[in-house]
Amino acid sequence: TVNRSIMVYFECGKCNETVKKPKLAKHLQSCQAHHVSCIDCSTVFGWNEWESHNNCVSEAQKYQGNLYQPKESSNKGQLKQDAWVDNVRKAISGSAIPSQVRCLLEKLLGFDNIPRKQKAFGNFVKNSVKVWDDSKIEAMWQVISKANAKPEGDQKSNGESHRTPEVKKAREFPGWKRAIDEELEGAGGALPWKKLCRQVKNRYCETNPGVADDIESRVLSAVPEEYCSYEHTLVTLVR
């Protein structure tokens, strides 16, 4: 078996805060949650059951048994929470923020279970820091959320942000009759004459920019007589 001595973390079932085991009893007294769950193994514990959960066994460790190979950093809850608190500390020391907000944030650093979601954060500040002014809570949250925001380029794959966009190459104009046939074939064999003129004209202008005089009449003069009908306004491809 694998012996783990890493601190056990729980998630409060009411406010979703991540709390170290030594501080869980105090948290439950103020939050009045009826259950908590272990961050690593996801086991749910009642009010009087969590105290016996000292050494956590993850799902992978449980099912793999002796084949289990622990990861170098397997306690994700601890790592996330430590990084969150560290970012708050950096924000206080490096940002030009109002002195009143700075003072409240410094007081907040006395806790290592700062919630990472805004609603839970607001409840936590009211219950733990004893700040009830919503505008002050909002100012604190803005500093913290900005400090923990991911850089804009983080979600792009490697090299994607530096990739040069491909330039769409214009189709060569094959001639009036051939262009008419291709547009009709692409539309299922028939098009209204106005739409046909517009599409062939646009295709011609792709390779001949700046030449727009009398193109529609040139399209119409290139339509074979057998493609037209006195019964309707469609131009129909005749193979």
Give descriptors for this structure.
single chain, 239 residues, alpha+beta, four-stranded antiparallel sheet, two-stranded antiparallel sheet, 43% helix, elongated, disordered N terminus
Shape type: elongated
N- and C-termini, Cα separation: 78 Å
| Strand ordering within the main sheet | 2-1-3-4
Helical stretch tally: 9
Percentage of residues assigned to helices = 40-55%
Elements, N to C (H/E): EEHEEHHHHHHEHHE
Q: What is the count of β-strands? A: 6
* Percentage of residues in DSSP E strands: 5-15%
Rg computed from alpha carbons, rounded to a whole number of angstroms: 34 Å
Word description of this protein:
It is a single chain. This protein has 239 residues and is an alpha+beta fold. The chain has helices at 24-31, 59-64, 76-94, 99-108, 118-129, 134-147, 176-186, 193-207, 215-222, and strands spanning 9-12, 18-20, 35-38, 44-46, 190-192, 234-236. A four-stranded antiparallel beta sheet has the order 2-1-3-4, sandwiched between helices. It has a two-stranded antiparallel sheet with strand order 5-6. Strand 1 (9-12) and strand 2 (18-20) form a beta hairpin. Helix 3 (76-94) crosses helix 6 (134-147). The protein is elongated, with a radius of gyration of 34 Å. The N and C termini lie far apart (78 Å).
Summarize the structure.
With 239 residues, this protein is an alpha+beta fold. It contains nine helices and six strands. It is elongated.
